[in-house]
Amino acid sequence: MAGNRRRPGSNHRPLTYSAVAVILVGLVLVSLRFVPGSPLRPTTGSHSPAAGARSSNTPTDRNARPEPSPSPSLEPLPFAAQDLSDLDIKGWYSWSVLDKRTGAIIGSKNMGETSTTASLIKSWIVADYLRRAAEAGQTPSDAKLDDATQIIRDSDNTRAEQFYNGVGRSASIKRLIKMCGLTDSKVAPDGGWSRTALSPRDTARLGLCIDDGRAAGPKWTKWLLNEMRLVRGVGDFGIRKAFPAKVQKTIAIKNGWIDRQKEQEMHINCLAIGDTWTMGVMVRYPINMGYDYGMKNCEKITEALLRPAT
Questions:
Q1: Cβ atoms of 79 and 305 closer than 8 Å
Q2: What's CA 116's distance to the chain center, in Å?
Q3: Three-point CA angle 91, 209, 154, nearest 5°
């Protein structure tokens, strides 16, 4: 029929284009459901795998940093400052303890008062000799090292005087005061080593100076500390005797003891270097009371300051 005839060039293309357009629009609408932020994106519940992954693995704040772990607190020193007036010690006494980890110092109210050191100062004389030798590029002979051993372990006075002359006498004490940061101490009026004036506070500082290597230098510090742990005979008394036998072996010491005829006094001094601390104790009392009284009091003062064993 003429009504069913198509015009020349006529076909189904308009219908085809419409169908394609509908399909494309549908595909776009479907794809928009999966675009983040699209209003057509379905809301996921807490049971959604995606939500679960995001909540467990993704921080809510990208700039958030983990909290730093608190630094461990330092173990307390074995000593606690306290009043020792009930010890019934005759004469003058003073003490000081230095924390090697922090530099903090505790002590008696008079810890800055000085007394003559006697043989305690030999620890510095030997340290000064060894450091200066190393700085000059010299290695002490075996004989010299044997002399140094006898000065430290046995407190030999003759050899100490020879070493003291070799390091410039009072110039050595001036180096001690400057190098170790002493604030109370003075060179002896006669320039001798025995009457060098140190306070218990500066004695503890001398202990730190020896321990950290300033005194004897990096080459000889370990050697000197070992010699001080091997002090023997009459010079082995005082601070470390207040500790258990096993601990005593780890503590380096140098003590001084002398009867001052001019002052009619006994001067007893104790230096000790422990694992985390250094300590100085000094006592003076009437000469007729003898050496043993002061030597025992160095130990007695230390015992009174020790914390109870836990």
A1: yes
A2: 29
A3: 65
Handedness of CA 298, 148, 197, 134 (dihedral sign): negative
Distances in Å between the alpha carbon of 78 and those of 75, 284, 293?
Answer: 9, 25, 24
Give the C-alpha distances (Å, rounded to integers) separating 190 from 81, 133, 170, 195.
Answer: 36, 26, 9, 8
Dump pLDDT digits (tens) for 16-67.
444 444 445 454 444 545 444 444 544 444 333 333 333 334 344 444 445 5
- Residue 304: Cβ-neighbour burial (10 angstroms; 0-12, 13-18, 19+): middle
How far is residue 76's CA from residue 54's CA, in Å, rounded to a whole number? 47
The letter for the amino acid at 76 is P
Angstrom distance (rounded) from CA 55 to CA 40: 23
List, in order, residues 6 or more apart from 75 with CB less than 8 Å away: 276
| 206's tokens | 């001398």
